[in-house]
Design goal:
This protein is mainly α. The chain has a domain of 30 residues. The chain is built from 15 helices and 7 strands. A 3-stranded antiparallel sheet has the order 2-3-4. Strands 1-7 form a two-stranded parallel sheet. Strands 5-6 form a two-stranded antiparallel ribbon. The longest helix is centred in the N-terminal third of the chain and has 30 residues. The two termini are 14 Å apart. It comes from Chitinophaga eiseniae.
Length: 412
């Protein structure tokens, strides 16, 4: 374990710029449609300027330890974004892997600072969303501004409240109160659930217990099945329950069951029962009407080794958020390459932490495969194992520099 001071002023600019880039890579609602390219290129351009300064100060460099990370990520970049398949084309999203190539070169202190800044941003987003939710829970109507955005030919309508945004169609009524699935500033509630899970999967020392509690409550109110699965796995990994804790959990489970039973039938059917019904395929529920037939036709006669290309689903106007979409685009070679990438990025880490990271990797890959080439996902898989191997100094630490040169180390 290494004690690292995370308040070094020379690191703050690049750490803050990386945190902002991570946030933009989470696709907030204002980055959808025509604004996406400007926000991505603008934020990453500023980050690259600060990264260049880090190179000059030797706060970022390629070493024997991180060279393997760089090479496998570069191969992944070429395979995903170089136009080699029929429906491939160059897209702005390729910049996320370019940024990640620089992330593996950064001093670990910078990664810790960026992670803390990003986690604090998510805390603020969660807190504001909970405040709006609480106000509506007591029956007070708040003013809102309708905001329409487009992405890949589709339109989405958001209701912008003071402090949060609500996607149209995610409202519901319970006991006479008009409420909503919390999504923060992101494109949908499930998306916010995945991002919250990333923060919670990091070393608990990254964020205070109170802030993690706020994020957890907000994420639970997304009603996202993906988050519930990730959160359940995290609890099983992190907690070793005593006898009293087991009794307490049993009591909470009974109370939860009673509260669940008291919910209106239409609410339960809409957000829970229809997702686990044996009469409905959960994956098909997340796709367009034609996707399953298109997928079956595309994969019926040939072994889908390399996929059809990044824009194949857009070209045929079919959508899906699960692993089948990734398989259509990049084939079995793409899945294999991602698995190799994961094991290279986590090689040499503690086995328990690697299992936790793989659980996160697998759930997101199966459930939200479109997220796997975004910077936030790449950063999470890389940083989660690292965060558990470091002890973090308090935020108000007065130590300006490590006392031992061995503490100024590089990831790997």
């Amino acid at each position: 374990m290494n004690w690292l001071d995370i308040d070094r002023k020379t690191y703050k600019p690049v750490a803050w710029s990386l945190a902002v880039v991570l946030l933009i890579s989470c696709s907030p609602f204002f980055s959808m449609g025509g604004n996406a390219a400007y926000l991505i290129l603008g934020s990453t351009g500023i980050y690259f300027l600060f990264f260049a300064n880090c190179l000059a100060r030797r706060q970022a460099r390629l070493t024997n330890r991180n060279l393997n990370y760089f090479l496998i990520s570069f191969i992944l970049l070429l395979y995903l974004f170089f136009p080699i398949r029929q429906y491939d084309r160059l897209v702005v999203a390729a910049v996320w892997l370019l940024v990640f190539l620089t992330v593996v070169m950064l001093d670990t202190v910078i990664l810790l600072m960026a992670a803390r800044y990003f986690a604090n941003i998510i805390f603020v987003i969660a807190l504001l969303a909970l405040l709006v939710f609480a106000v509506k829970l007591i029956g007070v109507d708040l003013p809102f501004y309708p905001y329409e955005t487009g992405a890949t030919g589709s339109k989405s309508l958001f209701f912008i409240y003071p402090g949060t945004a609500v996607l149209q169609g995610q409202e519901y009524a319970v006991f006479g109160r008009s409420l909503f699935r919390i999504s923060g500033i992101f494109s949908e509630p499930g998306h916010f659930g995945m991002i919250s899970a990333i923060v919670l999967f990091m070393n608990p020392e990254i964020l205070s217990k109170r802030k993690r509690t706020v994020i957890t409550i907000a994420a639970l109110l997304t009603l996202s099945m993906g988050f519930y699965v990730l959160f359940a796995g995290l609890c099983m990994y992190r907690f070793r329950f005593s006898q009293k804790q087991v009794v307490g959990i049993a009591v909470l489970a009974v109370l939860g069951f009673i509260a669940f039973s008291a919910m209106p039938a239409d609410f339960l059917d809409r957000f829970f029962l229809n997702k686990v019904s044996s009469n409905q395929d959960v994956l098909d529920a997340r796709t367009s009407a034609e996707f399953s037939r298109f997928y079956d036709h595309f994969t019926r006669y040939d072994i889908n080794l390399f996929g059809g290309g990044r824009t194949i689903t857009e070209n045929f106007e079919v959508t899906s958020s699960d692993y089948r979409s990734f398989l259509l685009k990049y084939g079995w070679v793409g899945i294999t390459l991602y698995l190799v990438w994961f094991f290279v990025m986590t090689y040499g880490r503690k086995k328990q932490v690697v299992l936790l990271a793989f659980f996160f990797f697998a759930v997101v890959f199966v459930h939200r495969s479109w997220l796997v080439d975004y910077l936030i996902f790449l950063f999470a898989v890389y940083f989660i194992p690292i965060s558990y191997e470091l002890a973090i100094m308090p935020k108000r630490s007065k130590l300006p520099e490590p006392q031992d040169k061995r503490l100024h180390w590089y990831p790997g």
